[in-house]
Every structure is written in structure tokens, then in C-alpha cells.
Amino acid sequence: MERYLIIKTRDELLRIKIGQILYFEADRNYTKLLLSNGIQFTFAINIGKIEELLETQVAGSNAILMRVGKSHIINKNHILQINLPKQKLLLLMQDGKPKELVISKDPLKILKETLEKEMRKSEEPKVVTE
User: Fold this and answer.
1) Which residues 6+ apart lie within 8 Å of 72 measured at CB?
2) Residue 56, exposed/middle/buried by CB under 10 A (0-12, 13-18, 19+)?
């Protein structure tokens, strides 16, 4: 079942499929949203409020979306490459083109470790009891 995030402002309402979100990016009191198909929106809402909306509206959204540093919330399912020395994160767009984000080293390192931990968990043998 598809899950949606609904963002309401005074003049508009936006209903977004969680899987289509590529990333949110903070820009002072505004937040930019880029969808995997390349469509972009800007809201007069700060990224902390977006994070709150995700937590209240979409149960388990933190399994897909992750805050990376002060400026970004990214969709982990779209990650193509994490490059720590170059402080670079590549996300894959729907059309197969990469989207590059420059993110400071510490948040990138945490993201990399989180993904590695999730990979190890999924590789663990499942214990079946009867």
C-alpha cells in the first residue's frame, strides 16, 4: 500500500507518495523537495517541521527517509554512491540520471554506517521456531 505525505500551506495542498521523494533540502525558513521524476517544490516550512510531519503522518517513514545533517532528508532507497573523501552523495533519479548532493563528512559517515548496519541485519539468517 502506498503511503503519502500531505503538506498544506495557506494556498495549496500537496500529496506526495513517500517512494517518489528523492530528498528535502533546507534553505533557511524554506524547504525544497525534489521528487525522483525531477519535479521540484519549495515550501515556506523549515525542514524540522517537515521532519515532524513525516513522523506524525507516515508511520515507519524513518525506515525509508533519513535526516542527513542539518540540511537534508534523503530517501535511502535512491542512494547510488556515498563518497566520504569528496563529501558527495549520489541519488538516482527515475530516468537513471544521478543527482549529486554535497554533504559534510560526519553526517555522510553516519549514513554510510546506518546503511551497512541495515545490510548486515538483512543478511542475518532468520531463526525459524516451530
Assistant:
1) 23, 24, 25, 26, 47, 101, 103, 107
2) exposed
Ranges assigned E (strand) in the chain: 4-8, 13-17, 21-27, 30-35, 40-43, 65-68, 72-75, 79-83, 88-92, 98-102
**Rounded Cα–Cα distance for residues 24 and 68 (Å):** 10
Percent of the chain topping pLDDT 90: 77
Output Rg (C-alpha) for the chain, integer angstroms.
Answer: 16
- pTM here? 0.88
